[in-house]
Predict the 3D structure of the following.
Amino acid sequence: MIAQHRAETLTLAALILLLPCGNLAAETASPVRGVVRAEASATISSELLARISSLPFKAGQSFRASDVLVTFDCRRYEADLRAAEAEVKTQEILVETNRQLLRHRAAGTNELAFAEAKLGQAMATAESLRVRTSQCVISAPYDGRVIERTVDLYEMPQANAPLLRIVKDGQLELDLIVPSSWSAWLKPGHKFDFSIDEIHTTSAARVLFPGAVIDPVSRTMKVTALLLNPSSAVRPVMSGSARLRMPMPEAK
């Protein structure tokens, strides 16, 4: 009887250990691969066809918001703008002259309408050139670094050709590809560790938002996460593995 009672006690203790413990119990899901990326990046280009007169930053160098990244030699565009503005003044004089003549019945309404139309056309041409000349200097939209410089000083790149590739300083994000079945439990705010291959370090991360759609072929979804206090050695496009812990269901 004593042996039987002792066996029953041991069996009960084993069952208690196997009971779920709410959110304290968790299961580690399989590691998934991820890539580090900057919060923002851009390829700088221009529709101008002009020679580059200033290109102060080289690949790898840092810049501050509003620093000049590229300057073009826009003397031709500026001369065209001055000519267009002079044409606007000429047409304004013609419009006013036709108004005076119309008041004295020395001109018809058609002449005034034609002069006003020519004035509108001249103003539109001047505004188009004003927009073009405003693109002669390209300033940095944010603090960042130059990834790549595809042109050099005094070159005349084709219109809309890439000039610089830049990346924003600051927060680093992760792109993860996870099984679509994880959408049932992987929510914004979920924390995990991300091991970076290139520098052999691990950083904490937090899910920002799961993907909006599921890939029906691979049955995966994209997840965007934020690296929390990463090492200064971490760079965009580094890759690694994420280990996420799947929370167990709460005990009822």
User: Anything to note?
Assistant: The first helix runs from residue 2 to 18.
